[in-house]
Amino acid sequence: MTIDVAYVEVAGRSREWDQQAVDLRAAGGQVGGVSGATAAFTPAVRGAVSGFCTAWTRHVEELAAGAEERADGMRGAIRDYLETDEASGSVFDPAALLLRGALEERR
Questions:
Q1: What pTM was computed for the model?
Q2: For residue 66, is pLDDT > 90?
């Protein structure tokens, strides 16, 4: 039985998860930055706006952390496959050798 792994595709998806984490953190920062502007709201809603901003920022940070975990897991899987192929002397796609650089996290 042979398991074929599209290393380049997996590496690309891991970078997309990294980018998702970056985008989520940026969005969370923008919403979190609004909480300082709660003075523009009436006292009746100011607390609710502040609570929403805090909860949303926390939620987005959790999503970003999950995206990072997925990216890290995918890079780890590629690393494991490459190491297994190298250790067994298997012949695999030469492009896989170029992926060594893609196994580092870029955020």
A1: 0.73
A2: yes
Secondary structure in 3-state letters for the chain: CCCCCCHHHHHHHHHHHHHHHHHHHHHHHHHHHHHHHHHHCCHHHHHHHHHHHHHHHHHHHHHHHHHHHHHHHHHHHHHHHHHHHHHHCCCCCCHHHHHHHHHCCCC
Q: What is the CA radius of gyration of the chain?
A: 21
Average pLDDT in the chain: 82
Instruction: Report whether 70 contacts 49 (CB < 8 A).
Output: no
| Whole-angstrom distance, CA of residue 69 vs CA of residue 73 | 6
Domain residue extents for the chain:
11-103
Only one residue has tokens 């002397």, namely 89
Q: How much of the chain exceeds pLDDT 90, in percent?
A: 33
Name the band, by pLDDT with cuts 50, 70 and 90, for residue 90.
low
Whether 88 and 74 have beta carbons less than 8 Å apart is answered as: no
Residue 29, SS3 per DSSP: helix
